[in-house]
Every structure is written in structure tokens, then in C-alpha cells.
Amino acid sequence: MNLKEEYRIYAGVIFGIAVLFIFSVFIADRLSGEEAHLRRFILKGKRAVEEKNIFACADMISKDYSDKYGNDRQGLIYAVQEVFNYYKRIFVHIEAIKIKFDDFKTSADVEIVALVIGYTHQNNAEKILEGEKGRFRIKLDKIDKKWYLSEAEFLESITIMGQNIT
Predict the structure, then answer these.
(1) pLDDT digits 0-9 by tens, 62-103
(2) Exposure winner among 81, 124, 139, 151, fewest CB in 10 A?
(3) Closest Cα partner for 110 from 140, 67, 131?
(4) What are the boundaries of each domain within the chain?
(5) Which fold does the domain 32-165 belong to in CATH?
């Protein structure tokens, strides 16, 4: 067996392992339940906030979004962009997630406890959400097999960009 044939064998084995890995990830994703999909959606949102990725955040918001603060989808996107501009960095640590689905698993109420710290451009740390005082509720709707944020509400008063929100 020459060196060229050995490389072909190694390449074939590596390719086979890669195909099996991709297939197993695909199957695991298909077999996991809606709760796992919802948790991945929430973690995707966490990453988008920490990366200050307004486009990823906007893609997660339902076109029918509304909240008790008077925001619609455009208002929320504008508010998120203002927060991203105000803070140089944002750190999010999710401490707890409680999920309640409707009967058809097309809508979910989620209560999240989180620690969120924003670092201003002067490197001052501001606690936005703080553990048990950092509880908020979101409503998610499944539209065309994809989850979207349709409502958000803070369950405790918070201070964001120096303003108290209750």
C-alpha cells in the first residue's frame, strides 16, 4: 500500500465520521422536544444580547409583538438598539427558566431569572437584572415551525440606562 492509498483511507474514515456526527446531531435535534427547542431559542437570544447583535434580536421578535409598556415590534427594536448603544458590553447569566406550554405547544409563557450586567463606555458596571430581583416573563409563539417573542414583562422594577422601569 502506498502513501496515496493510505491518505485516501484516512480521508474516507474522517469523512465517514463527519457524516455520522452531522447525522446524529440532526437526529438528536429532530427527536428533542419543544422544551429543548425553546431553551435553544432563549440561549440564542442570550448570545445575541451579549454580542449586541441587533439583527439577530430583531429576527426573534414577532411581527405582532406588543407589551404593557406600549411597545410594538419597531419600538422594542429601537429600545434594544438604544441599550446596545448605551452599554459597551452586556453580560447575561440565566439562573432559572420555567416554561409553561399551551395544550398544542404553539405558545409558551416563560419566566426567567437572570443576572444582567451592563458595562458603560466609562467601564462602570450597572446591574440591570439581579437574581431573584431579576425576574421577567416572556410570551413566545410558534409561527411556521419557528419560535418568536410576542410579549415581554419585567416582574420586578429594574434600572436600565439610569432609568427605573417598573
Answers:
(1) 999 999 989 999 999 999 999 999 999 999 999 999 999 999
(2) 124
(3) 140
(4) 32-165
(5) Nuclear Transport Factor 2; Chain: A, (3.10.450)
